[in-house]
Specification:
This protein has about 240 residues and is an alpha/beta fold. The protein has 4 helices and 7 strands, in the order αβαββββββαα. The protein has helices spanning about 1-20, 45-55, 165-190, 190-205; strands spanning about 35, 60, 70-75, 90-95, 100-115, 125-140, 145-155. The strands form 2 sheets. Strands 2-1-5-6-7 form a 5-stranded mixed beta sheet. Strands 3-4 form a two-stranded antiparallel sheet. Helix 2 runs parallel beside helix 3 (about 165-190).
Amino acid sequence: MNRSIMRVLLGLMTLLLAGCGFKMQGVTPMPFESLNITIPQNSQFGADVRRAIRAASPDTKIIELSLLKPVVTEKDPEVTEEDPEFTEKKPVFDPKTIAQAKLEQVSQVRNARIVSLNAQGKPDEFELTLVYTFRLVNAKNQIILPNTTLYAVRAMPFDERVVQAKEGEAATLYRDMQKSLVARMMRRLTAPDIKYRWDEIQASAPAEEEEIETATPIQAPSDNLSSPLQNPSLNPLPIPVNPGG
């Protein structure tokens, strides 16, 4: 009897969920088979991004930049014997280590500023800001997703008597903002227009490649950083928002 009641209840719940448009979150595969990520691996943010990509698009292989090592070298065809640099060679990479697409970190900024003072003229509240810019290009630096900037802002009450505790609270808030940015980044990277743009580039004839907008190459962030997004110190105190006011 109890089993029958449970089955009926489960059936009703299924119908209600289907009626309200509820759908279990599943994978949202990316259109390319391999991806380079220039966000440093040894950071929490970089690890979170990689984990999210593997979960959303398990068939997309992540190829780390550390694997991009030249297997042979060859002379630059544009350098002639008359040029003093004609003996210089350029690296040739193993095709298996070159990803179809690259998720590139363009810039990142963390900032903490005073937004209000107490009756004694001392900081009463901080505004913590995290600004992150990224882009998505293919192996030829043709733009799939142009520079995209995400913002996260949190307010934090401040007490100068417990600066260390407040710095710990700020670090926790920044981690929360990072998680928010990762989720928003994944929604952008798995949006339908990304697949449309990828298919558009793939379908273009070789003669038309010059007409496709390309991005200026940028230097990948150092992977030796302890964190790609450093927490600004609250001691000494930063300058207030309106120092003259």
